[in-house]
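User: Here's a chain of 299 residues. Predict its fold as tokens.
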Amino acid sequence: MKKLYLLTIALLVFANATGQKLKPYILAGSSASSIDVVEKTVLEKLKANGFRVEGAYKPVSGKDRVVIAVSNDDLAAAVKKIGGFKGFALALRVALTAENGKVLVSYTNPAYWGRAYFTENWESVAANYERFSAKMKTALSEFDDEAIKDFGSKKGIDVVELKKYHYMAGMPYFKDNVKIKEFASFEEAISTIEANLKSGVKDVRKVYDVKLNGEKMVLYGFALSGADGERLFMPKIDLSSPKHTAFLPYEMLVVGNKVYMLHGRFRIALSFPDLTMSQFMKIVSTPGYIEDKLTEVCK
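Assistant: Prediction complete.
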């Protein structure tokens, strides 16, 4: 009888978990102020609530959007606990987008991205993400002129499926990342990347780099400003409102002596899970373009 009871409870918990769905972004609210004024306020609030602002930039058009990359001790501790490719989770993003006469303030949904990146290790870092989420809600509470809501997918992704997400059969999972280059050492990798960035890599600009203390790990974020970059692919896939501005920038991870990027067909699909195959085909060259540009950074 006891075994039957425990089995019943387990099934109920599983059913409840599988019924929950998440979306990639959260709309914190909006402001009637200019985007520059909102950016200043957001930066102040983030810092006051313990977030480290790792970098910010104006993507795509350069005037209607701002992306702010943030990290904090909760994310760092989560990554340090598991290590490896979980380094892609070292930063999350806050976005400001001028739409319909207002500036919308949004951010990447911690529970969504955390599950997608930590996969089978999610439960061991869930508390870190809960703390991060609570602090983010507090930091952006000033803009809560409407109910905080998630967006970025009509139906959302089931929390169980999110931990093993891929767009469709034959498409890459989180683990199927792209190795850009292998160096002789971590130090050589970093010095090469920084030297190339200082010299200038065409159509690529560093937005941020997040170092994990005590580990040979750095997460970079890059703006892709060329004719085949953000201004080409974003208008083809960022079609709904609110805009998915917090999709940007694109990341590159240095772990030990190796450099990786998330596969474009995983990272883009995760950010725009409702894209149709015909919409995907409009940016069929984008994953390869991103890989080529990040390869130039490491040459």
